[in-house]
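Page 47, continued from p. 46.
Same chain as before, 173 aa.
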Amino acid sequence: MASHYTHITDEQAEMIRNAPVFFVGTADFGEESNNRIDAVNVSPKGGVPLHMISPNHVAYLDYTGSGNETARHSETGSPVTVMVCAFEEGNAGIVRLYGRARSMPLDDSPLVDMLLEQPADEIALPMRQVIDIEIEKTSTSCGYGVPVMSFERERTVGDRGRLYKGAPVPQRA
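Result:
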């Protein structure tokens, strides 16, 4: 059973700091879809630290290379859920952060200098914007359904593959 909080707890912060990947979920229910949910987008964010600005505020650098659904949905007022999982053996857990996000151009964000202290060097794609999230509540659950996995390394542009996009997969030399 999940435990709910009004802010990021110290235990949740520890899990967030140690996570090699987090997931961001938003919904498309703006004016174009007559305020009904048209689609839900969930994006994995690997190689990009989730920075805790305060117990109710997180942010991350967003890079090009995929759709821009988080920013688009945030502009329509979509709620955002950030999910962090612990994959280590004997330490299962899930932290969810619920709130509202806004995307900001790099030049307009007051957080960009702090976020640039830990850029995602392995991504090798241009930075697109800052995703700035105000947290309204959090939850922690047991993570029983999270598999035990170990982190090998960050993915690079050269080995991102295209198999599932219908294009030929580049071969490594």
